[in-house]
Amino acid sequence: MEYAVLVDPDKCIGCRGCQVSCKRWNDRPGEETSFSNEWTNPLELSFNTYTHIKFELEHNDTTDETKWRFINWRCMHCQEPACAEACPVNAITKFEEGPVVVDQTRCIGCKFCISACPFEIPKFDVETGKVSKCHMCYDRVPSKEPACVQACPTDALVFGPKEKILQLAKDRKAELGGTIYGDVDNKPLGGTSFIYVLDAEASTYGLPEVGESLPATLPVMRYSKWLLIPAAAGGLLYLAAWRNSRMKEKEK
Predict the structure, then answer these.
(1) Strand partners, 181
(2) Rounded distance, CA 27 to CA 78, Å?
(3) Please, which pLDDT band fits residue 51 given cuts at 50, 70 and 90?
(4) In angstroms, how far is CA 45 from the centroid of its own chain?
(5) 164-168: long-range contacts at Cβ-Cβ below 8 A with a sequence spacing of 24 or more?
(6) pTM recorded for the entire structure
(7) Which of 48, 92, 94 lies closest to 191 in space, CA to CA?
(8) What secondary structure, in 3-state letters, does the chain show?
(9) Looking at residues 31-52, what average pLDDT do you find?
(10) Burial of residue 131, with CB atoms counted within 10 A of its CB: 0-12 exposed, 13-18 middle, 19 or more buried
(11) What is d(CA 9, CA 135) in angstroms, rounded to the nearest whole number?
């Protein structure tokens, strides 16, 4: 059975409980940060930060009112993940339960997944030479909900079978008079396992516009790395032959 998470920013209070629980469950170290006028902290996802709360400040010039918008952000777990399609060593898997997972034992650090992801989610670590991202707590699902969902005090994150989550999204959309991002109203990369119900346009939350299917050029990225191997091998053979030639000249 496929599972999904409903994200309801209108219920989010910006407590960052999801960030803390994600760090604890995945045993990820804290990162040194600094204050920013954007309030989002940390500003970006990283190799050790799988999820964070984005703070968006909206000001209405007509009414002179200011409104905070908080939104939980991490991997969308696409139905047709571009990162998996781009990976040349099949280190990324889309599981039937929903999660898209990076197998770091297979990852070669080529960063093709980073270039392919339209949401700019996977992050590279210089020390390990690997890529990581949110894995939707695949080690808990479905017997237990993801750590971020379990920690949310306001039900801004809800986990369940995807059909049930889609129905909840539709019902909530009717209440808010808004839109659904990730499925139904738009289906980036065939749909996603994280589904947002928004009371405004996606751009208001800083969410990117993503096509419904994989780019036609993506398979080229996956195999282009290996197309370079013959050329690289030929170059090494040439250098070896040139060195041997120079050594013989010196001996003479």
Answers:
(1) 196
(2) 25
(3) very high
(4) 9
(5) 165/3, 165/4, 165/5, 165/6, 165/195, 166/4, 166/195, 168/6
(6) 0.84
(7) 94
(8) CCEEEEECHHHCCCCCHHHHHHHHHHCCCCCCCCCCCCCCCCCCCCCCCCCEEEEEEEEECCCCEEEEEEEEECCCCECCCHHHHHCCCCCEEECCCCCEEECCCCCCCCCHHHHHCCCCCCEEECCCCEEECCCCCCCCCCCCCCHHHHHCCCCCEEEEEHHHHHHHHHHHHHHHCCEEECCCCCCHHHCECEEEEECCCHHHHCCCCCCCCCCCCHHHHHHHHHHHHHHHHHHHHHHHHHHHHHHHHHHC
(9) 88
(10) buried
(11) 21
pLDDT of residue 56: 86
Joined together, the tokens standing for residue 173 give: 């959309």
Q: Which residues contact 61 (CB under 8 A, 6 or more apart)?
A: none
Using the predicted structure, report yes or no on whether residue 238 has a pLDDT greater than 60. Answer: no
For residue 18, pLDDT over 70 is answered with yes
Buried/exposed 15-47: b ≥16 CB within 10 Å, e otherwise:
ebbbbebbbebbeeeeeeeeeeeeebebeebbb
40, 55 Cβ separation under 8 angstroms: yes
pLDDT of 157 > 70? The answer is yes
